[in-house]
Amino acid sequence: MTDLDAPSLDVPEEQLHRAIRDHYDGLVHLYESLWGEHIHHGYWAPGEEGGDRHEAQVRTVRELVAFASVPTGAKVLDAGCGVGAPAVHLAGELDCRVEGVTLSPAQVERAMEKAAEAGVADRTSFRQLDALRTGLPDSSFDVVWALESLELMPDKTAFLREAYRMLRPGGTLAVTTWCVRDGGFDAEESAMLTQICKDFAIPYMLPMGRYATECTDLGFTSVRVADWSERVRASWDVDMNSDAIRALLRDQSHRLRLARTEGVAVLRLIKVVPVMQAAYRRGLLQYAALRAVKPS
């Protein structure tokens, strides 16, 4: 095995932000049709793989709530809130007050719709902001929550520092994020990671152990990192679980119609599914949960 560094996208931050906005603005409806209202990995207990995808995605939220000990009634910043499903869940089940931020205006609009439909608009708000530099007040949140958004950020340390600043003393950072295996990669693995980074507008990914080091260096305490890879990898077993996926894989004319209406990103999304499956199977791609506490 050649000891290659983990691939990264060497592009200016402004260009990366534009790529992320374009990606999620263009595919917001398609993602919901393929993945459901929760646009993130599901969590399956052993033996439950192949079960209902929506239940598994809700379980991911509940597992992170439990892992990070998110308290009832907490004031939460949802950094990279997507279309708002986790925020709506936190507001509805835990009576949290949630402020969601995202780079995508289309996601802001959809998140507001979902919150209104769920009857939690009075406990949620969403706006277009950069999670690395929100401008929000110091020590203003009980929880900073980032469910599958940290991998998209061009400076992981800057986000962790910003989270520390915004947390109240005793407040908790709750994160799930895509990671890479710690160690070298051969040329084939490096190519796989490069494709994943390009297709999902990910600047780079870190080994999960780095997050424990980063948080400790920034002053967080009670830092815990857990490997959830085996619990979430079934999220990519989508080729035969969805009528929409079957249609996409079978019908070239349907793919071309989607490309015209949704943009060429839809074709990249289809092609990257088997790459994601292989990356998890080889242990190349990993999925981490992170909890850290700002000292009282």
UniProtKB/TrEMBL annotation:
This protein's record includes keyword Transport: no
CDD domains, alphabetized: AdoMet_MTases (cd02440)
Gene3D superfamilies named in the record: Vaccinia Virus protein VP39
Record keywords: Methyltransferase, S-adenosyl-L-methionine, Transferase
Region annotation (SAM motif III) ranges: 166-175
Region described as SAM motif II: spans on this chain: 139-147
Any single biological process term in GO: methylation
InterPro entries on file: Erg6_SMT_methyltransf, Methyltransf_11, PiNMT-like, SAM-dependent_MTases_sf
The Methyltransferase type domain, residue ranges: 77-174
Region entry SAM motif I, spans: 76-85
One GO MF term: S-adenosylmethionine-dependent methyltransferase activity
Pfam families found in the cross-reference section: Methyltransf_11
Similarity annotation: Belongs to the class I-like SAM-binding methyltransferase superfamily. gTMT family.
Protein name per Swiss-Prot or TrEMBL: Delta(24)-sterol C-methyltransferase
Organism: Phytohabitans rumicis
Phylogenetic placement of the source organism: Bacteria, Bacillati, Actinomycetota, Actinomycetes, Micromonosporales
